[in-house]
C-alpha cells in the first residue's frame, strides 16, 4: 500500500498509512488527520494484513484491528 486508505467505522472516518513494517491509524475530522497510533504490522492477523495490502477496507478482520487501535487510544485517554 503506497497511498493512504480511508475506512469508515461506526460513523467515523479513519486513515490507514503504512509506516515501514507498521501501520499508522489516524482519525479524519474535516480535512485534518490526527494520528492515533502506529501498530507493528506483525501484530495484525494475517487476514487483516492481506486486506490492507489489497486495499479491502470492508474486510472484517481489518475493521476489527482498527477498532482495537481506536479502543486502546480511548482507554489511554486520547
Task: Give an account of the 3D structure.
By secondary structure, the protein is an alpha+beta fold. The protein has one domain. The protein contains two helices and four strands. It has a four-stranded antiparallel sheet, covered by helices on one side. Helix 1 (46-54) packs across helix 2. The longest helix has 16 residues, at 60-75. The protein is globular, with a radius of gyration of 11 Å. The termini are far apart. The model has no long low-confidence stretch (mean pLDDT 90).
Mean pLDDT: 90
User: Which structural class is indicated by helix and strand composition?
Assistant: alpha+beta
Report, as a whole number of angstroms, the end-to-end distance: 27 Å
Count of separate structural domains: 1
SSE pattern: EEEEHH
The total strand number stands at 4
Instruction: Please give the share of residues in helix.
Output: 25-40%
Strand content: 35-45%
The number of helical elements comes to 2
